[in-house]
Structure formats: C-alpha cells, structure tokens
Task: structure prediction
Amino acid sequence: MKIVRSVNRMFKISSAARRAGRRIGFVPTMGALHQGHLSLIRAARRENDLVVVSIFVNPLQFGPKEDFKKYPRAFSRDKRLCRDEKVDFVFSPPADEIYPEDFKTAVLVKGLSDLLCGSSRPGHFQGVATVVSKLFNIVSADTAYFGQKDAQQTVIIRQMVRDLNIPVKIRVMPIVREKDGLAMSSRNIYLSSRERQDARVLPEALKLAKVLMQSGQQDSRVLINRMRKLILRKKNAKIDYIAVVDGKTLRPLKKVSSGCLILAAVFFGRTRLIDNLIAA
Ligand code: AMP
Result:
C-alpha cells in the first residue's frame, strides 16, 4: 500500500492504471475510519482491480462554528486499517494541495444543497460537491463508493455526476450500525456516556416509523409527529429536522411511498447526528 500526498502523483498513478485497463474503485473519506467506511472499502475491493481511499478532512465543508479543528484524526490507525483491507493507495493530500492560495472555483448543486442538512449547515454541500468533483478528476475512478448514512450527500453527488457528465459510477452502500442500532459515525466519539445512551432513540424513532408504515400508516405528518414525540422523551435531545422526502428530488412528501426517504437530524448535547430509512 502506498501513501500519496501529491495531486500530481495521484493523477499520474490513476491515469496510468486506467490506460492499463485496470478498474479503479474509489472511497472518499475524512478518515477516523470505522466499520461503515470499511464496508465501502470492502465493496470497492470486491469489485475493482485497484482501490484508492482518500483521507482528507475538507475545510470547505465545515461552517465557521463547526468542528473542523477538533474533527477526529487518526492517520496511523487509518493506515493500518486500509492496509488490512488491501487498499492499494491512500490519497491524503495536505489542504494546500487541494486548495492552493489562488483557488477560486465552487461546485453548487442548486435546489438540493440548501434543504435539510443544508439549511442548518449553510455552505456544507457546496464544500462537499467541490471537493468530491476535484477528487473525481484526480482519481478518475470507474466506481466511487458512498454510504447511505449521508443520504442527502448521495443524492447531491448523483445529481452532480449527471449534470457535469463526470464519467464515474456511484455505488451507495447500506448504513452500518452499532449493536444497539446507532449508525456508526466518526462523530459518535464526541458523545458523553449519557448522550450516547440517549442517542439510541434516533434509530428507534426510524424503527417506529417503519412499524407504523408496515401497519398501513402513510401520512407523513403522523409519522413525523410520532418520531418527534419519541425523541423528545430524551431531555437532552434537540431535533434539527425530521422529514419524509422523495428519494431523488428530496421534495417533502405528504404521503409515504416505496423508495421515499425518512430522514432525521438530532442534537444530543452539542453533537448533531443524522440517520435515515428508505421506505420499503
Ligand atoms: P466521512 O468520513 O464521514 O466523510 O464518510 C465517508 C463515507 O463513509 C461517506 O460516503 C459516508 O456516507 C460513509 N459512511 C459514514 N458512516 C457510515 C455508516 N455508518 N455506514 C455506511 N457508510 C458510512
């Protein structure tokens, strides 16, 4: 496994591999790897000749009051995990390789970036779309792997790839969860033990929505209200949003239908967690 720091070198490696007819699988991450990331890496390993994992904490997708500085960084451990998964290249450039001083461009996927997570995190998805489009150009993968955990991100990336004719296939892998149901996230380590306990209510609320849907409930308002009530039983939980939306357009739906998304973002203390469910 090789560690690549320079954009030029990564570009050369991936162009040469493409010319040699090797299929490249690419997994973009911000590091602090957990089983969720590893599930993407394993899928990339199964389906490609060469696997590139990027580890880059992207300053552009953090708001001024967000956790860029204290975002967990665990490069030695990440390297070990990648090596164990037989990753070929870890691309981990310094910030000024990606954003040199005279960097001026931004990628904005209009209409999808300012809703849901985007409304409480202005600029976040523009930062994501900008870095992902750069990484796609640098790595020139056949297939890129993303997690369903960040449902809105996957919708935005798919739209961007279509709109800009980026020649990459997008694969979205299921949410990997802790034993008690909490979706794995690099941010879970911020939770105090009390908050960690309370956070179980987030997947429980989605499970409740699933049970209600299975018993025939189709009214989004009813589902959202029941989820809200359950979550607010936890004193320290503060709901950012709960929404039932179309899986492609992210438009709110009055009635649930197969393939629609039920999404929630909830603060436990100062830590904001997200989770979602695709309706069967
Ligand atoms: P991040 O390092 O948080 O930017 O995440 C990198 C990729 O891993 C994104 O595509 C995420 O959606 C995905 N990911 C994060 N957590 C999970 C999880 N619990 N299950 C599946 N994929 C995940």
Remarks:
- Residues 29-30, 36-37, 39-40, 146-147, 149-150, 173, 175-176, 183-186 surround adenosine monophosphate (CB under 6 Å).
- The two ends are 40 Å apart (CA to CA).
- The longest strand covers residues 237-245.
- The chain has a mean pLDDT of 98.
